[in-house]
Design brief:
alpha+beta; 608 residues; five-stranded antiparallel β-sheet; disordered N terminus; 58% helix
Length: 608
């Protein structure tokens, strides 16, 4: 698999070696299961298809091949870990709507007028929030606050957004509910040993990793803030006009552009024209020498201000021709829980449904090569909308996107405190082992519904169903890896390769393999794949399994190297104006620090 992962070559070579040796000692059925798993992971790594669809296809393949019984095919959807993830997502949605975090963010803004101190508080708040709610929900709450602060203090959003995203990933390592990998590891341990990890069993290692990682991130923010040039500061007010918006416009009759060459039009309007469509056919050849005509459709890229100037001049009009009321504009980012990913602008039917229109879209680092109306939108894309403000807010809410502006919610004190109180009660009940974790958080959701803190429709909309489907489909596949003996064979192959390296080397191997897989896969799938192998390694070496399982959880949550390893990193790519390689530049040292701290703490907290 082609990957920019700086640590990719070693794990790929090791994986091929393990696969070759393991296959030689497997039965045909075990080899076939391993090939199904390999195909699943490759399909996910290529990022061409949805994770949940790949997981369902793989599950059905395992059922048809006899690795998973038909009776157990959908048992994963009733797994306590899946139920807990869904409940935490609903609770996070209720807390978001309560306005508590918005109020807290505004109070933080008022505390200090020193930009660096404010950025540090944002990272700390994001880390704390993500320890008790889903990582994505924590970032979704913090992103508008971070952008508003960047505007107020006049620094580019790119200074803070990546450290903020990484801080939320670090915070998820601290508690059982901080991230799905922790829940999956706890449930796997229960299935195999009859014991679960409790709410704060992750805290000793997680807090140490988070503390060291946070110090590193704050140092990186300080250095980046000092390195911001004056011209970046002066233009930071326009930092929310995302560069390189892609759109398509039609040259109006008697336009100033009629008869001009593409090159002249680009210079006159400071835009980039990468395609011309005439009479339904795209022009090829020397594009910059082509003379434009009325009725031509231009596929262009432009900053927000340049695009608005061009439209207001009357020289062009949006190719869609949709008429809407209102001239206000809004930028919104496509989130993983949105209904937008996979849809085209045409299929969203924004003018018909909401009375607004899509002016343009931006995909950081990649150009929309074809017609915008036919492009499939993806997580992290930034949409530039136009229409009445109320209509745009309704559209953004219905679509599940995130407006890149600070929300102003005026709610009563009771509506702010009830969700927090119920959530705190659920955490205490789970931590004290009064009821199982899944029961505690489902009771919290029930309390939110009975107190009318959240409606049924809002609760369902808060759940990222792609994650739920992914988890529910992959859990039986992970069980098959264990019950067929395939995990044992892989583990013995690892032990034979390790030789007399010792238990600490085995622990490091499990941790580093998990860390190498997760940036090009996703963390739940990494846990489901690695947990059975880690357990088999521990048992084959006559070691206690807890440190190895914890190593998988830590490694699976260390998604610091690419924008595709974790959805939080994808969301910030557009607003932060990041390039693919920017993640490894900041994330590789953090990955190394995470590994070193985890390997120091794990055997001390969980003796081998």
């Amino acid at each position: 698999v082609s990957s920019p992962n700086p640590l990719g070559f070693g794990p790929v070579w090791l994986g091929i070696t393990i696969l070759k040796r393991a296959l030689s000692g497997m039965t045909p059925a075990q080899g076939l299961l391993l090939l199904v798993l390999a195909g699943t992971l490759l399909a996910m790594a290529f990022d061409r298809w949805r994770y949940d669809v790949i997981a369902i296809v793989s599950l059905m393949a395992c059922v048809l091949l006899g690795f998973v019984s038909p009776q157990d095919a959908f048992s994963g959807f009733g797994d306590p870990a899946v139920i807990t993830v869904a409940a935490v997502l609903v609770i996070s949605g209720a807390i978001s709507q309560s306005g508590t975090i918005d109020l807290l963010g505004r109070k933080l803004t008022a505390i200090t007028d020193r930009p660096y101190l404010h950025m540090a508080m944002q990272c700390v708040l994001g880390l704390v929030l993500s320890a008790f709610m889903n990582n994505i929900a924590a970032l979704t709450l913090m992103l508008p606050l971070a952008l508003a602060a960047a505007r107020r203090f006049r620094y580019p959003p790119g200074v803070i957004l990546m450290p903020l995203s990484f801080a939320t990933l670090l915070g998820g390592k601290i508690t059982l509910i901080g991230t799905p990998p922790n829940l999956l590891i706890s449930n796997f341990r229960y299935q195999e040993t009859g014991l679960r990890f409790s709410m704060f069993d992750f805290a000793p290692v997680g807090l140490a990793v988070a503390a060291v990682g946070l110090v590193y991130l704050l140092a990186a923010v300080w250095l980046r803030a000092r390195g911001v040039r004056d011209d970046e500061t002066d233009s930071s007010i326009e930092a929310f006009d995302v560069e390189d918006y892609g759109t398509e416009v039609e040259i109006a009759p008697r336009s100033l552009l009629d008869g001009q060459t593409v090159d002249a039009a680009e210079r006159a309007w400071s835009v980039r024209i990468h395609g011309v469509v005439r009479d339904g056919k795209r022009l090829f050849g020397r594009l910059h020498e082509q003379r434009l005509m009325s009725g031509d459709i231009l596929l262009l890229e432009a900053e927000t201000r340049r695009l608005e100037d061009l439209l207001q001049s009357g020289a062009v009009a949006l190719a869609s021709g949709d008429e809407v009321s209102g001239t206000a504009t809004m930028e919104a980012v496509v989130t993983p829980a949105s209904v937008v990913p996979g849809s085209t602008p045409a299929s969203l039917a924004l003018p018909e449904r909401f009375g607004i229109r899509l002016l343009a879209a931006a995909r950081q680092g990649r150009r929309f090569e074809g017609r915008l109306s036919e492009e499939r939108l993806a997580v992290g894309d930034v949409l530039l909308l136009q229409g009445e403000p109320a209509a745009m807010h309704e559209a953004v809410r219905s679509l599940g996107c995130l407006p890149l502006a600070m929300r102003r919610l005026k709610l009563s004190v009771s509506r702010r405190t009830v969700p927090i109180a119920l959530f705190a009660a659920a955490i205490l009940a789970a931590a004290a082992d009064v009821v199982p974790t899944a029961i505690a958080f489902v009771l919290c959701v029930l309390g939110l519904a009975l107190t009318r803190m959240i409606r049924t429709s809002e609760a369902l909309a808060s759940i990222d169903w792609s994650v739920i489907i992914l988890l529910g489909a992959m859990i039986p596949i992970g069980t098959a890896l264990q019950t067929t003996g395939t995990a044992d064979i892989i583990a013995h192959t690892l032990l034979s390769l390790a030789g007399n390296a010792g238990p600490y080397a085995l622990l490091a191997g499990v941790l580093l393999t998990s860390m190498a897989i997760t940036p090009v896969l996703n963390n739940p799938a990494t846990v489901i794949l690695m947990a059975p192998i880690a357990l088999s390694v521990a048992e084959a070496a006559s070691l206690k399994p807890e440190a190895f399982l914890m190593a998988v959880a830590v490694g699976a949550s260390a998604d610091f190297l690419t924008p595709i390893g974790h959805q939080n990193n994808t969301i910030i790519m557009g607003p932060g104006r990041y390039r693919f390689t920017d993640y490894a530049r900041l994330g590789l040292p953090l990955t190394i620090l995470t590994a070193l701290v985890a390997l120091f703490m794990l055997p001390r907290v969980w003796p081998l």
